[in-house]
Predict the 3D structure of the following.
Amino acid sequence: MTHHPHGIDPAQLSDDDVRREVAHLHATRHDTLTGGSESALEAHTERMLALEREFLRRFPAEGAPDPMRTRAGSREAAGQPVPGRDLDGAPG
């Protein structure tokens, strides 16, 4: 049996497994931060970053920010000028 100290390489996981692992790590982050040892937090961080990189590689559209959560999107929705763009959304 192969030993994987920080889990299976994210590139070897199925899409469903990557999604599940990312959700689980996000759900356990606070407990690891507040109650885990320094080495546990370091291992959790390394695993989380590796899985998040793989998630974004596989699902780039899901990692794109919601336009309303960006300064430009919020200004545009409010009818304010957006630097680099006209109000009609055309490049400035």
